[in-house]
Amino acid sequence: MNVLIVEDEKALTTEMELFLQANNFLCEICYNGATASEKIATNLYDFILIDLGLPDYEGLDLLKEAKKYNPEATCIILTARAAVDDRIKGLDLGADDYLSKPFSLLELQSRMQAITRRKFGLKHSVVALGDFNIDLTNRSISYKDLPVSGITKKEFDLVAYMLLHKNRTLTRSQLSEHIWGSVVNDDYDSNYIDAHIKNIRKKLNAYGTPDWLETVRGLGYRININS
Ligand code: CA
User: Model's pTM, two decimal places?
Assistant: First the structure.
């Protein structure tokens, strides 16, 4: 999943970036509101973290733009501890959560996970797909209790992303943007994503048939799940 971090304190930005990258998030950084505003209007993010105290921009205006151009993104506002009014305004404007500074990175991560579970209607972090189990916390796949070996980080990211957006067809460009962070061009993206899906299928097929992973001709891919 991709995250846009908008924060002018460079040390904090670096800390968040390193921590989130280590937790398999793809990060983009903006140190000012003007650049963030452009990115929000152009790209689609899974998470947007917005410092409300930006030197060049009204943080709440940036939040409004995020809600408008990135309606599916989870928005978390970062505020000074004393700024109660801003937090309330932010939540009223549709922020999904807030953190007051200083905050622990572990708290940031657990809030991001909690919102993700809520938003995608997951009761547990292990999801059954036929005889396969996908463990979103430990980032592993098993088949009838047998661990599936050889799944790479990016392959797992692809499966997890489709699983969160279950029963919905995702285009190759969408998968590319949210997992690799760039949409190069349609042909390139298609081949790239197709190659990854082919590898995933091959690895899963060594155990059982992943009939829940569907190729939607001319559109993209989806994971089908009934419950
Ligand atoms: Ca600031």
Answer: 0.91
pLDDT at 37 over 90: yes
Helix 59-69 vs helix 33-42: angle between axes, to the nearest 10 degrees? Answer: 10
What pLDDT score does 188 carry?
67
- Select the CATH number that applies to the domain covering 2-119 from these four: 2.30.38.10, 3.60.40.10, 3.30.565.10, 3.40.50.2300: 3.40.50.2300
Distance 59 CA to ligand 1 centre (A): 9
Please tell me the class of the 126-223 domain. mainly alpha
CA of 68 to the centre of ligand 1 (A): 23
Q: What is the mean pLDDT of the chain?
A: 94
CA dist 116 and 110 (Å) reads 10
How far does residue 53's CA lie from ligand 1's centre (Å)?
Answer: 4
Q: How far is the CA of 55 from the centre of ligand 1 (A)?
A: 7
Separation of 51 CA from ligand 1 center, angstroms?
6
Of 97, 2, 13, nearest to 45 (Cα)?
A: 2
